[in-house]
Amino acid sequence: MAAFVGSAPTRVPAAPLPVAVCGARGVPAGAPAAPSVAAAGEWCARRRRPPPSTLRHSQCHNPLSFSRGQPSSPPLSSSSSSSSSLPLSPPPSTGGGGATLRAAATGGGGGAATAATGDEEEDSPPPPEPSFTPSGRAITAPRPVVLDGSDDVRGRTRMEVFRDRRAAASPEDVPTGGREAANDWLFADVAKINVTAGDGGNGVMAFRREKGVPKGGPFGGSGGSGGHVLLVADKGLNTLARFRGRVHFRASPGNNGLGKGKHGAGGADATVPVPLGTVVRDATSGRVVADLSEPGSSVRVARGGRGGRGNMAFKTDRNRAPRMCERGEAGVSRWVKLELKLVADAGLVGVPNAGKSTMLSRVSAATPKIANYPFTTVVPQLGVVDGYDGEGGDAAGGSSTSRSMVLVDIPGLLEGAHAGVGMGTAFLRHIERCRAIVHVVDGSAADPVGDYEAICAELELFNPRLATKPSVVLLNKMDLPHVRAAWEEGSLRDALLAVMPHRRLAAVSAVSGAGVQKMLHRLTDLVVDARAKDDGGEVIAPAEYEDSDEEELAARKVTVQVVAPGVFDVRGPKVDRAAAMTNWDYVEAVDRFQRVLEALGVNRKLKAAGASDGDTIVVMEREFTYYARDNIYSAAAFADGYTDGFTEEGDVDDSRRPADGLALEYSLDDDGEDEEDDDDLAYEEGDDVGDGEGGELSKGEGEAKGQASDPDDGLIIIDVDAPDAPPMGKK
Ligand SMILES: Nc1nc2c(ncn2[C@@H]2O[C@H](COP(=O)(O)OP(=O)(O)OP(=O)(O)O)[C@@H](O)[C@H]2O)c(=O)[nH]1
Ligand SMILES: [Mg+2]
What we know:
It contains 17 helices and 27 strands. By secondary structure, the chain is of the alpha/beta class.
C-alpha cells in the first residue's frame, strides 16, 4: 500500500496557493433569500382562480381598511365610517369637481399619494385581477394606508411612519414622552450574535525524574478542554434586546497541562440566557440549530476545543516513552441568528386601529398604548388574563387545565404582510406559537368583512397552518350606535358568518366591556382544549444538531486538489483539525499526523490523483514531501477497513491490534529503547519540568494557579514500573 510520508514541515508562503473550491473552505452558501413581495405575487399568480361567489364586499371606503377590489370613490367628506377624529385624512375621492387625493395603488411600491382629476382617473390602469389564497380567499392588489392625505405607509419604515404620526398627532394623542416612545423600539425579536468557544489547553511532554526512580516514564499532562457556549431558554426574558448591546460571547479556554502528570483544568462554559421561544439558526446556512421553547432547554452552539494530550496519554505497550504532545484544539467560533417567537395562548390580530390594544388592556393588566391612529402598537405586547372564574394559576407554560392565559397583541397588519409589508412577517411570526387566534374586527370600518377576510388571507399566506388554528372573531366597537344598529339589523352578522369557517363570533365593546366576559369564557375553553391537544407550540424540528452523524461524515470529508504540477492541496475539517493540533516540534507527532491522513483516506486519494515521490503536499499551509512506499503498519492497520488497528485519531489501538504483531515493528522503531536514559531525563526530583514548548514551569506552579489537581503528589505509581509491564525496548 502506498503511504504518504512527510518531511519536516515548512511554512508555505501565503501568496502563491490558489484557493481550491472544496467543501471545507469554499465560500459558504448564503442564507436562503427572504420571501419578497414579487415572489409572493408570482405565487399568487400561479394560484389564480376564478372569484368565488362570496366576494360581495367589493367596496371599501375606509382608508385604514383593506380593500377587496379596486376601491370605489366616495365624495370627499369627513363622513369616514370610522369613529376617527384624529389626523386621518378623509377617504379618497375621484368624483365631483373639487381637487381630490388618490393614493397610488402600486403593488408594494410605496408611491406617495398624488393629486388626480377626473380625466386622470380615466387614464389610470385597470384594476388588477385578484389572486387567491390556497383556500380560495381573494387577495387584491395592496392598497396604501393613508395617514394624512399625502402620506403612504407602504415602502416606508415603521419608524418613519411613527415619526410622522407623532408629528401630526396632538400632544394628548401621544400620551407618552419621547424617551418612552423610543423605548418601544427596544423590543427586539431578532438578533445575530457571535459565539466563540474556548480553545483547548496544550498538552505537555515531560518525563518523570525523581531520585531513586530511574526511567520514570512519560509524565506530561494533557491540556483542559475549552468551555462551550450554550444558549439556555429563560422564562424571565421577553425580548432579545440585550443582544443589541452585546454581540460577542466567549467561553474560557482550557488550561495547559503541566509536568508531574498534571492535567490542565477545563475552561468554564459560557451560558447565554435567551427568551423562551427562541429559534436558533446558523447564520451562514440558515439551518435551524434549535428551537428553545421549553423552560430550561439549552443548546450548545459552539463546542470548546479539545485539550491537547500530553505525552502520558500516548504511552502504549509499544511506545513506553513517547516524545510528543498535542496542541489544544481551537474552539468553534460562529455566528448564529436568534429569532424570537413569543409563546402565548392567543394572539390578537386585526387591521390597524381595530381595537386590539384596547381589548388587551380591558382583559389583562397590560397597559399598551391606545390611540386613534394606525400603528399605535409597534411591538407585540403580552398580557396575562386571570382565569375568568377566579381559578387563577399559571398562564402559558403552566398547568394545561389552568384557565389563565397569556394574550399577545400583535401590531396592526397590512395587506401584503405575509410578504413583509409593514414588517408583517416580523409580527406574523409571533402568531405561529399561539394556540388560538382572536380576530379583532372594527365594526365601525367601512368593510369589516373585507378586513377580516384580508387578515385571514395574510395569515394563511404566511403559514397555511395558521388557517387551521382555532379562532374567535370579535366584532368590536359595539358601543357605537351605528355599529350596534348594523349588528342588530343582522346583515353584518350574517355577512361575517358567511365567510367564517366557524360560528365563534362575538359582538363586543373593548371600551365599555360589553360582551367581553362571555367572549373570554369561550376563548378560554378553546385555549384549554388546544393545550390538552398540545396544539400551538409549533416547535421547529431542528434539521440537525451539531455532532450528528451527518456532521461527522462531513467532517471526515477530504478533498485533494492539484493546484500546480506536483503540488497537491489537501483539505477537510478533520485533516485541518489534526494539522492544527499537531505539535510539529516532535517527530512522533508528525508520524502520528501521517496516520491520521491514512485513516482519513488521504493517501488513497493522493495516489488516485497521481501523486508520486517527491511531490509537494500542502495541508493547512504546511508543506510535506510525498513518498509512495509500502507502509508496514498502515498495511496491517487498514487491512480490514482503514481504521482497524488504529484509533480514529491515528494512535495505535491496543485493543484491536492484530495478534500476530504485524503492526508492532513500527512504534518503537527509532528511539524506543532505553529512552529514559537520555540526558534530558537526568534531573532530580524538584527540578523544573519542561512544558513541552520550550518554556519552564517551576514546581508547584500548577497548584498555585489552581490549574491541576495532584492529590498524591510524589506518590504516583507509574504504569511503566508495574510488575506486569513488559520490558521496554524494541520487540
Ligand atoms: N368606541 C369605541 N372605540 C374603540 C373601541 N375599541 C377601541 N376603540 C378605539 O379605537 C382606537 C384604536 O384603538 P387601539 O386599541 O389603539 O387599536 P389597535 O388595533 O391596537 O391599533 P394598532 O395598534 O394601530 O394596530 C382608539 O381610539 C380606541 O379608543 C370600542 O370598543 N369602542
Ligand atoms: Mg394597538
